[in-house]
Amino acid sequence: MALNTPLSIDLNCDLGESFGAYRIGNDEEILPYVSSANIACGFHGGDPSVMRKTVRLVLQQQVALGAHPGLPDLAGFGRREMAVSPAEAFDMVAYQVGALWAFIQAEGGRLHHVKPHGALYNMAAVNKELAAAVAEAVYKVFPEAILYGLAGSELVRAGERLGLQTANEVFADRTYQQNGTLTSRRRPDALIQDHGQAVQQVVRMVREGKVLSQQGTDVAIQADTICIHGDGPHALAFAKHIREVLTAEGIQVQARHS
């Protein structure tokens, strides 16, 4: 990324993860601070009514609409690995993207991107066969969509091979390993709790294309879109803070063109 040109970045957030009587996240409050939204499709979170409501909220804020398909593990919030085959992964993604696309169509919107959730995302980042299945599902259901994947991952490479537009995603509040993967959530050092440290990491990834790993070495990274999470206790405050800092740094927040 050339450092002498105006910088811009997409700021995405996982939304629509409430279901039934359970409310998760701060969807309506966070939307004004992000440029794209990843909407849960009913497997790890969300339900039909929440999907429709969230699509309407996102359209009202003129934020880019994305599908956020996950593993069928509501109790584990889609964050536990499952021994799924590539064929099963294809079916899961096609099913969920199709469901959200139907609600987007019903509300007069347009599907902008697809970003797998949780364990499915992490598995597809390193497993070439799973990555190919996920990318193929997106390509066959909605080939105009941008495929969001972990920066430098097998998922991004699979999308590129099919001719999909891709976005290399980085994380504001997660720590990294020296191979470019995210630190497992099972480890106590997986999350960055300090807002200042998280924002500093983001600015460096955008401006320098580098992130400091937990092993103390710099890792080259491409930042096309930044993920912030909407379900933490301080999620809203962090969304406001990171948007303010990016603006102060002269980095424009906007969705990628598809």
From TrEMBL:
Alphabetical UniProt keywords: ATP-binding, Hydrolase, Nucleotide-binding
Highest taxon in the source lineage: Bacteria
Subunit structure: Forms a complex composed of PxpA, PxpB and PxpC.
Family: Belongs to the LamB/PxpA family.
GO terms assigned for molecular function: 5-oxoprolinase (ATP-hydrolyzing) activity; ATP binding
Gene this protein is translated from: pxpA
Organism field: Pontibacter ummariensis
Catalysed reactions, as listed in the record: 5-oxo-L-proline + ATP + 2 H2O = L-glutamate + ADP + phosphate + H(+)
PANTHER family, sorted: 5-OXOPROLINASE SUBUNIT A, UNCHARACTERIZED PROTEIN YBGL-RELATED
InterPro entries recorded: Glyco_hydro/deAcase_b/a-brl, LamB/YcsF/PxpA-like
GO biological process terms on file: carbohydrate metabolic process
Cited function: Catalyzes the cleavage of 5-oxoproline to form L-glutamate coupled to the hydrolysis of ATP to ADP and inorganic phosphate.
Pfam family, one: LamB_YcsF
Protein name (Swiss-Prot/TrEMBL): 5-oxoprolinase subunit A
Enzyme class: hydrolase
Lineage: Bacteria, Pseudomonadati, Bacteroidota, Cytophagia, Cytophagales
Documented EC number(s): 3.5.2.9
